[in-house]
Design a protein that fits this description.
heterodimer, A: 307 residues, mainly alpha, MetI-like fold, two-stranded antiparallel sheet, 2 strands, B: 378 residues, alpha+beta, OB fold (Dihydrolipoamide Acetyltransferase, E2P), six-stranded mixed sheet, five-stranded antiparallel sheet, 20 strands, 24% helix, globular
């Protein structure tokens, strides 16, 4: 009897635990993602108005018992037809892609070196990767202005070495954006790669060598495929925020460097066109969700193969 | 007894004219200041199942890894089938190794794992498929070909690892603790299987193990290692019956070690005054001079209950049964013969245990014959 009761209680406890367990992340997502998303979506369907907040309401009681809902799709039409926005989207994606590849090319050897370093040195190297985070991101990007400007550190160094005889124009170009982004986002590539590579069983490489595989081929056949989850994770952590990046293009990029993050900022704060800015934000989200889902799926497929 | 010619074939190390298949010539490996392998020389013959036996850290794995080419000797040369391979990297040696962890590629199927080495040799696709099929059939894992390593049991993984190393038909197969990851029951059947497999394919096996039973059942010869050096190389029987060092006697099986001093010699017979105050008469294969401090090593199963015990009897000791370990087939009796010394004696349980004569606290006299043990100095 009592045992039966306990069993039932236990079962109820477990069900409750399950609800809490699964419910918490959903609640979190609902509160901090879905609700803001709904608000932004709401704004994107409104019209600008000289009011506080600067947009019209979507619904209005016209008569007794008649609710009029006005959905303004104009902003989306603008986003899709105005070549400026399209160009900004494409350029953002391009910058993000180039920077992700650069981060991967620079970050992979670094992560590999850290993962294979002796225990004591590994801690120091990891510290060096994380250390820059202790300074404000904004200050670090500002510092690059000092380095890249025409009479900045880099140009002075190259001039004094006699490698160039005229200062290079790097600041306020797309190149400056690449430099700034790669610098800022490199740790986000290195850390997941490092986490993945430390779990790599190096006896697998010895086995590959034993079976007749030269070191570089062993890397291609064993290390690389096994580190794919780390590559995907790192690329996602770089690509997604870089698409919407605002600070770096604003500080280092030129007036003609079209990045969607910067556009958004301009629409929101300079033009006070909240609905258009909201529509842009929604589209940006759409653009980001596609690669995200694709990579998630890829990771899932590879993840199943992992030990 | 087999005729001499046949015996030479079975035991090539007995034949002074036989050329060794693997020659390890004064090989040393230092890691920093530590000698992992210290001036080791060893000949291994074709078709042998050779075991390197020792406790962890004795250098046996380092020696194996040097044969594989995964470590480079600090000094000395290694020859395989007449060729000096010392400077040949692992990926071009005609040698394959089965790793202790098996090191199966987790992102490849069983089939792809086995095929990996063949692909490196650029073997044509058709031939490759045939060889893979052959290997999978040999190890009876054909039905697992599409599985990934994490979908296999420990025993299955071991077979896949073995198939992968055998696929390239290496001149020499190295096995690092081949059965270490298996549970006890599986290990026993795997031992016999490994030996049968080796006999069938005729490849020379060199294995590393810390398990003396494993080494005894599988090997043609065993090299007992300690502190980077090889102490004794011999057949399992010789290692067990005629150990040359206290360490070897002690490492393999149970042994009673009586310290003493030689008091009389005649031909190959010695009389020893033991520290227990008793005289021991032993056959000594390497006759020691009078006065030499020696150790008499006698296996517990060579002791018998003494029927006619005498106070000054030769090769006799008396004591009180302190512990009994009942193992089913045999029992090990630990007998206190002096305040410092326990003597171990094993007796076959001919009668059910309840009817056994010896029990705790009982006084028992034991004796042995002059040929049942060895006299050691080191």
């Amino acid at each position: 009897m009592i045992q039966e009761l306990f069993k039932r209680l236990h079962l109820r406890d477990r069900q409750l635990a399950r609800v809490v367990n699964i419910g918490t992340p959903y609640l979190w997502l609902g509160l901090f993602f879905l609700a803001p998303f709904a608000i932004v979506l709401h704004i994107s369907l409104a019209e600008t108005a000289l009011a506080q907040p600067p947009y019209t309401s979507l619904w209005e009681w016209v008569d007794e018992g008649v609710l009029q809902v006005r959905l303004n799709l104009h902003n989306f039409v603008t986003v899709f037809t105005d070549e400026l926005y399209l160009a900004a989207f494409l350029n953002s994606l391009w910058v993000a892609l180039v920077c992700t590849i650069l981060c991967l090319l620079i970050g992979y050897p670094m992560a590999y070196a850290i993962a294979t370093a002796p225990e004591r040195r590994r801690v120091i190297l990891l510290m060096l990767i994380i250390l820059p985070f202790w300074t404000s991101f904004l200050i670090r990007v500002y510092a690059w202005i000092g380095i890249l400007k025409p009479n900045g550190l880099l140009n002075n160094l190259l001039l004094s070495l006699g490698l160039i005889d005229q200062p290079l124009t790097i600041l306020h170009t797309q190149t400056a954006i690449y430099i700034g982004v790669v610098y800022s986002y490199l740790p986000f590539m290195i850390l997941p790669l490092f986490a993945n590579l430390t779990r790599l069983d190096f006896s697998l490489l010895e086995a590959a060598a034993d079976l007749g595989c030269r070191p570089f081929k062993a890397f291609l056949k064993v290390t690389l495929p096994l580190s794919l989850p780390g590559i995907v994770a790192g690329s996602m952590l770089v690509f997604i925020p870089v698409v919407g990046e605002f600070v770096i293009p604003d500080l280092l990029g030129g007036p003609d460097s079209l990045m969607i993050g910067k556009m958004l900022w301009t629409e929101f704060f300079s033009n006070k066109d909240w609905p258009l800015a909201a529509a842009l934000a929604i589209c940006l989200l759409g653009v980001l969700v596609v690669p995200f889902v694709m990579m998630q799926r890829l990771e899932h497929r590879i993840g199943g193969d992992e030990l | 007894m087999a005729n001499p010619a046949e015996r030479r074939k079975l035991e090539p190390w007995q034949d002074p004219k036989a050329a060794p298949y693997v020659r390890i010539d004064h090989v040393t490996k230092k890691f920093g200041d530590v000698y992992a392998v210290d001036d080791v020389s060893l000949d291994i013959f074709q078709g042998e199942f050779f075991s390197l036996l020792g406790s962890s850290g004795c250098g046996k794995s380092t020696l194996l890894r040097m044969l594989a080419g995964l470590e480079r000797p600090s000094a000395g040369r290694i020859y395989i089938d007449g060729a000096d391979v010392t400077d040949i990297p692992a990926y071009s040696r005609p040698v394959n190794m089965m790793f202790q962890s098996y090191a199966l590629f987790p992102h490849m199927t069983v089939e792809q794992n086995v095929e990996f080495g063949l692909k490196q040799d650029r073997m044509p696709r058709k031939e490759r498929a045939e060889r893979v099929g052959e290997m999978l059939a040999l190890l009876q894992i054909s039905e697992l070909r599409r599985r990934k390593p994490d979908q296999l049991s420990g025993g299955q993984r071991q077979r896949v690892a073995l198939a992968r190393t055998l696929a390239k038909h290496p001149k020499l197969l190295l096995l690092d603790e081949p059965l270490g990851a298996l549970d006890k029951r599986l290990r026993e059947s795997a031992q016999f299987e490994l030996v049968n497999l080796q006999e069938r394919i005729g490849i020379t096996f060199v294995t590393v193990t810390h398990d003396q039973e494993e080494a005894m059942t599988m090997s043609t010869r065993i090299a007992v290692m300690n502190a980077g050096q090889i102490l004794q190389v011999d057949t399992p029987t010789a290692i067990y019956e005629y150990p040359e060092y206290r360490f070897v006697a002690d490492f393999i099986g149970l042994v009673n070690l009586f310290d003493g001093r030689v008091v009389e010699t005649q031909d190959d017979q010695v009389l020893i005054e033991s520290s227990l105050g008793r005289r021991m008469h032993m056959r000594d294969l390497h006759p020691h001079a009078i006065g030499t401090p020696v150790t008499v090593a006698i296996r517990p199963e060579k002791l018998q209950i003494c029927a006619t015990y005498q106070e000054n009897g030769i090769n006799q000791v008396k004591g009180v049964v302190e512990d009994i370990a009942y193992l089913g087939d045999v029992s090990i009796y630990r007998v206190r013969v002096s305040p410092e010394m326990l003597v171990e004696m094993t007796l076959t349980n001919v009668h059910p245990r309840t009817e056994q004569a010896l029990t705790w606290g009982q006084e028992v006299a034991m004796e042995w014959s002059p040929t049942s043990g060895v006299v050691l100095t080191e």
